[in-house]
Amino acid sequence: MKTALLVNSENFEKYANWSSAGFELIHIGTQEPDPEKIIATGAGALLVDPMLKVGAEIILNMPELRIIHSFGVAYNGIDLEAARDVGVYVCNNAGVNAYPVAEQALLLILSLLKKYRWGEDMVYAGRQMEAKSACFENGLPELGGLSVGLVGLGAISKALASMLTPFGCKLSYFTRSGDHGLTGLAYIPLDELYSSCDIISLGVPVTPETTNMINSETLKLFKRGAILINTARGDLMDLEAVIGALKSGQLGGLGADTLAPGPLSPDDPLLRELASNELQRRVALSPHIGGITAGCFIRAYERSRQNIEAVANGQRPNCIVNGL
User: Fold this and answer.
1) Three-class SS string for the chain?
2) pLDDT one-digit tens code per residue, 61-70
3) Domain spans of the chain?
4) Maximum pairwise Cα distance, the chain
5) Following CA atoms 228, 234, 237, 243 in sequence, which dihedral angle do they give, to the nearest 10 degrees?
6) Considering only CA atoms, which of 49, 59, 50 is closest in space to residue 89?
7) How far is residue 105 from each of residues 47, 160, 190, 232, 237, measured CA to CA in Å?
8) Which residue, 86, 52, 50, 82, is CA-closest to 66?
9) Are 82 and 313 in contact (CB under 8 A)?
10) In CA terms, which of 150, 170, 210, 316 is 20 to 30 Å from 256?
11) pLDDT, tens digit, for every residue of 151-166?
12) Residues 161-203: pLDDT tens digits?
């Protein structure tokens, strides 16, 4: 079975041992896929970057296709209904990036609480004592004295909870499936979580229900001065509304590993606002790298290979996300 790969070929060769499995490998690249080019491969499996789109035009015109596998956790760019209609499995690497992304969320939280960007700028400007005096005057918050609300309780949120527990935070969560009865975590309704927590961390997938779930109306429910952390997907928040809440002080800070629309160009008005003197020191941004670790690559390629091998051998794969 031929496998068309829409991922970085260097990483593929470095972290995967696919040649021993007998697959013919076709490297297509990391840009938005050309449907005609993919269809022409006649591939039986597609391994795709989570950010790329595989629509019905591709799926319905590849009679040998048996499985589409997201290299990561996200799969919202794949037409699940079209794949299900023709019996093509769609799988993801659920949980493969949980701990590295949780580490990124913790980094963003601490960066904002400790005013890291501002402090670093002051040191480089030769104003260290001025910065230190300001901290003596106002004090910096301790993570252990704050309440953290987790929106969603997937693998990443659970990993983040395990990292935050030793700090002594008060941990709460909301999930559509209700109370999971987890020790050390309090289940509360979403509106109450927004209004009572000092830090809100988003950990849900992008769906029609969650797209722009953080908007001008929901931000009004937030505890004034709360910090918003988003290491999930930029589409979960209306960035313009978030910027407005930062300007008004309703939001005390934003830590994000991903923004939408993204990636933002240097002249994008929203990015310019985030980079303004008014906001920059209350914003911590990273370039969507939470899950980009060597360990994550190794796990993701190995799990993907196992699933694709299973389908090639007439077996059922793991982590099916399209209901087959």
Assistant:
1) CEEEEECCHHHHHHHCCCHHHCCEEEECCCCCCCHHHHHHHCCCEEEECCCCCECHHHHCCCCCCCEEEECCCCCCCECHHHHHHCCCEEECCCCCCHHHHHHHHHHHHHHHHCCHHHHHHHHHCCCHHHHHHHHHHHCCCCHHHCEEEEECCCHHHHHHHHHHHHHCCEEEEECCCCCCCCCCCEECCHHHHHHHCCEEEECCCCCCCCCCCECHHHHCCCCCCEEEEECCCHHHECHHHHHHHHHHCCEEEEEECCCCCCCCCCCCHHHHHHCCCCCHHHEEECCCCCCCCHHHHHHHHHHHHHHHHHHHCCCCCCCECCCC
2) 999 999 999 9
3) 2-96+293-312, 98-285
4) 69
5) 70
6) 59
7) 27, 7, 20, 10, 16
8) 86
9) no
10) 170
11) 999 999 999 999 999 9
12) 999 999 999 999 999 988 887 888 999 999 999 999 999 999 9
**Cβ(186)–Cβ(171) below 8 Å:** yes
Residue positions counted in the chain: 324
Determine how many CB atoms are found less than 10 A away from the CB of residue 212: 15
Backbone dihedral angles phi then psi of residue 312, each to the nearest 5 degrees: -60, -30
Spatial separation of the C-alpha atoms in residues 215 and 230, rounded to whole Å: 13
| Inter-CA distances, 212 with 151, 208, 209, 230, 268, Å | 14, 9, 8, 12, 19
Mean pLDDT confidence for 10-14 = 61
Q: Is 98-285 in the same CATH topology as 2-96+293-312?
A: yes
Question: Looking at domain 98-285, what is its CATH homologous superfamily?
Answer: NAD(P)-binding Rossmann-like Domain (3.40.50.720)
Q: Write down the pLDDT at residue 209.
A: 92
Sheet-wide strand order for 89-91: 24-27, 2-6, 45-48, 67-70, 89-91
For CA atoms 296, 298, 304, 310, give the dihedral sign: negative
- What single-letter amino acid sits at 90? V
Q: Which CATH superfamily is domain 2-96+293-312 in?
A: NAD(P)-binding Rossmann-like Domain (3.40.50.720)
* Separation between Cα atoms, residue 19 and residue 25, nearest integer Å: 8
